[in-house]
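Many introductory courses stop at the sequence. We go one step further.
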Amino acid sequence: MHEDPPQTVKPTRAGAEAQPPAPRADVWPDEAHLDALAADLSALGARLRQDDPAGDLAHLRRIAAAGRACTLIGVGATALGWLPLAVIGLALGRFARWTMIGHHVGHRGYDRVGGPAGKGFGEGARRLIDWFDWLVPAAWKHEHNVLHHYRLNEARDPDLVEANLDWLRRKPWPVAAKVAVVAFFSMTWRWSYYAPNTLAELHRPPTAPGEDPAERGVATWDPRRPAGRALWLQSLLPYGLVHVLLFPALFLPLGVNVAVGALVASALAELITNLHTFLVIVPNHVGRDLWRFDQPARGKRDFLIRQVLGSANYRTGGSVNDFLHGFLNYQIEHHLWPDLPMRAYARAQPEVAALCAQHGVPYVQESVWRRLVKTVRVMVGVDAMRRAPVASAAQA
């Protein structure tokens, strides 16, 4: 689905500073080394933005085609009564449309290479064509592109898992019971968490000083409120009716049994899509080896450093591997430069890792399964994230 990225050139910045120590995830790095890393990352970002590989747009089209092919395979298998293949095909199609198409186009990653414009993508009547999901694209762009990316791991980050699950962390329940709660949410989270939470953020007034972070992400389901009406009218009812009623009804000419099979396939695909997206999205910024920040970032230097120290990559490289991770295995590079095409992250990843090693700054990269374990341990209160020194937020 994408060619191997061209060989990268090793960083050439001549560091005059003393050789940095080996990175340690449990110690805040030396500020001088962070300054040097931020300067090199800034230069790398400027170079990446000047690149205009002709293959970036073609790669997006191949990813989109692969996602549609998965959906078509799912539809065909549904008609033939091949339930396992139907579920896998439908689930992968839904997964691809969010994690790779809606996500990266919505970040305007393809505006500069002649691709679909991020502004207006999936909004209005184009929602049915561009990206039809539980999530309302305008709400997703506000909650994710603006608040999450530019408030990463701060109290105002609406996706700060440790804060959002503080209520569960504090419960005096057995760990097994807490894990069961996490498992339930992982099977439903696109409609039980993301759809209402993104709409609540879109409709909420500016955060009041001193607001309890635990109350920040409370989703509204009340149809008397603007966010509640939007949730039911723009999210739950449209998506539910299409996939629960319309999709099975299309198979009625083939018989009632086939239509019932279509309903079962669609429901199971929804379950699998929730689990798959939870697996590759949620652990990206959670773990006892990642950092939280008690003060807002100040300046570009602070922003760049926080994306590295507050994010984790999964295993990178390989067409199938990257596709199944939704290109979210390049999370550090994506957070450094969210408006770049997917293949740009594959090109940048070796250089970012080398720069971090050069300056003695941790670059966290593990399998998605190891990251999931570390995430669940934070969710249930066994572990806690590291808290950055407040003084670091004052760096310009």
